Amino acid sequence: MIRKSIALLALVVASADAFKFMSNWQPPKILTDEQKVKMADMEERFGDKKLVVITGCSSGLGRQTVKNLLATNKYHVVGAVRDVEKMEAVAEIEEFDMDNFQIMECELNSFESVEKFCNELEEYQLGKPIDRLLCNAGVYQPSLPYAKWSVDGHEQTMQINFLSHFLMVSKLIDRMRDAPDPRVVMVGSVTGNDNTVGGGGVYPIADLKNLDGFKAGFNNPVAMADGYGFIGAKAYKDSKLSLMMMSNFLHAKYNKNTGIAFSSIYPGCIAETPLFREKRAWFRKYFPIFMKYITGGYVGVEEAGQRLFQVAHDPRCSKSGVYWSWNGGPREGRGAAALEKSGQISGGGGAGGGWDSIYENDQSDKVNNLELCVDLFKTATDITGAQWPDAKTFTSPCPTLTVISTISENMIAREELKRMAERPGFNADGTPIKLGKRRKAALIADKVIVKGVLGNTVGRVGKVAGRLLLGKVPETATTGSFQEEKPLEEEQNATPQSKETSSPVAEIEITQPPTKTIDIVNQGDKSALEEEIFDQVFANGKKSDHSSKEKEWKVDVEEKELATAS
């Protein structure tokens, strides 16, 4: 019976999700009157509705998406827009339910405005977690022969479409953890995916290259992420490529430990959207006709709005790390080749197909470039000043595990410190890396207290018991090395040095006669070390005022003085 119980316990502990059922356990909370009032206000404002934040919803795709969200009566929507008065007019025209729609100013041309919006949103939330974040806003400036600059001195297209959304996600991600099904959706584009005709067959091509422009700070006059000359259409395509790459990166970094689903979408070519307002008049007239009757990639703004709404609403779209697309055109009979692929074409997105035409589209090698994704995350963080939360995995709330982890953490830190003292490594000029005073003090304290006091009492008993229980180390474990380990001094002498990097100090340290142990304590540092050890080990002590070599440390313990020689 006992064996069966032990086996069952081991099976439970071995499971990765063994304690996950305890993750929502909370001790009883005693709410203050202020907290009770806040919860009542939150209930009154949101009820049982999900909280959605969407950028750029005064026109086009965002406007239609809000219409669909509010029509379900299941969402409370916050619209982050540049022009509040325009949004108010649109809301009146569309007859939005203003009890469930809140307008907030957010100018994506300014990082300060993004931060202000996030702060105001936090106050508005009243503690309610965000269920959906739809990064929709975007600009397209293909006709410009020169770059336009944001408030922060960055090229506008990249800042509005990518960098400001990047900063926004970093500030809101912690407020989404507690939602039951949180999702962050990036509106991408076929033009950012060069494994399609629209993305890989029309110049200029989306390509961040080595991110030299971002690495240089991306400040005026550096207008492109790759550091080369400005092209308005390429700036747009690069920004969409960046959004899709970042969706994949955030999925890998945060999905498992936050539960947030990160995805990107291509809703189709919305040829008559205000996105093309800066194109010439002839283009705005004939481009929709070309997309509708020649390529079959045309999508009306109403249908595109339904698609973004679907990714926010459909339970099937809770999957993370996906690039969502729709098979519209092929299902309308535009070719036998498409039908042979079950209606799926590369870069799908044409009109029609309905709710069930959604599928997980393939992404290009550029989007899936993990190394470049890491560089993009680092450089964008530097440019925006974003502060990302630590990606911590779930840990069991088991009290025993907490105690054991605390003890083992201290033991590991102590052993690692000793290992670093024995093999400190080498600087570029060949000199040994020296430990700081705090580490030296920690080593001395460990030697005096752990090895000296405990080692000669409890430790000695433990060693004897360990030898009796564990036995000798097998010979096979100690043999098999093809070389004898070189003394540390020999390794130092073998380290190549140039004349420029050599120094008298380095020569003195390297040519010292071999010793069995390394003296890591400099004689001149003894006084400082004594003070450090005194502060760290004898925190309640007082130092004697005597200036003799034999210093006294007076420790108040039950009104008795304990004197020890330094």
Write a brief structural summary.
Helix content is 44%, strand content 8%. With 566 residues, it is of the alpha/beta class.
Number of strands: 10
What's the helix-strand series?
Answer: HHEHEHEHEHEHHHEHHEHEHHHHHHHHEE
Structural class: alpha/beta
Oligomer: single chain
Portion of residues within helices: 40-55%
Topology:
Elements: H1 2-14, H2 33-46, E1 50-55, H3 60-71, E2 75-81, H4 84-94, E3 101-105, H5 111-125, E4 132-135, H6 156-172, E5 183-187, H7 197-200, H8 212-215, H9 232-258, E6 261-265, H10 281-295, H11 301-313, E7 322-326, H12 336-340, E8 358-360, H13 370-384, H14 399-422, H15 437-454, H16 458-470, H17 475-478, H18 488-494, H19 504-510, H20 526-537, E9 541-543, E10 553-555
Parallel strand pairs: 1-2, 1-4, 2-3, 4-5, 5-6, 6-7
Antiparallel strand pairs: 7-8, 9-10
Helix pairs in contact: 3-11, 5-6, 6-9, 6-13, 9-13, 15-20
Question: How would you explain this protein's 3D organization?
Answer:
With 566 residues, the protein is an alpha/beta fold. Helices cover 44% and strands 8% of the residues. The strands form two sheets. An eight-stranded mixed sheet has the order 3-2-1-4-5-6-7-8, with helices on both faces. The radius of gyration is 32 Å and the shape is globular. It starts with a helix and ends in an 11-residue tail after the last strand. Mean pLDDT is 76; it is low at 286-290, 330-347, 495-521, 540-544 and 546-566.
